[in-house]
Write a structure and sequence with these properties.
The chain has helices spanning about 5-20, 25-45, 50, 55-70, 80-90. By secondary structure, it is mainly alpha-helical.
Length: about 100
């Protein structure tokens, strides 16, 4: 299995745990998605040079992760794509 497939399989496992009500699964999903969302945040910030003067990638990411944590209390994504889509929407309000 490739690293990409391993990553996806592990996230699917964590999403299954989240849907079954495992209290630790929410944090596990966020932890697993963090690196990719950090890369996405950095990429999104590149388009806003004036904003980069005031905001750092990790500041934007931290706020997005807090919003993602709150969102996962209500929304149970069924796929990694949905997790990253939800994460991307949490990054955007800050931009």
């Amino acid at each position: 299995m490739s690293p990409e497939q391993d990553h996806t399989a592990e996230l699917l496992n964590r999403l299954d745990r989240l849907r079954t009500g495992d209290p630790a699964a929410q944090a596990a999903v966020i932890d697993h998605a963090c690196d990719r969302l950090r890369k996405l945040t950095r990429k999104m910030l590149r388009g806003y040079e004036r904003l980069r003067r005031w905001e750092q990638t990790d500041d934007v990411l931290q706020d997005a992760m807090i919003r993602l944590h709150r969102s996962l209390a209500d929304v149970k994504p069924a796929s990694p794509r949905q997790v990253y889509g939800l994460g991307a929407t949490q990054i955007c309000p800050r931009l």
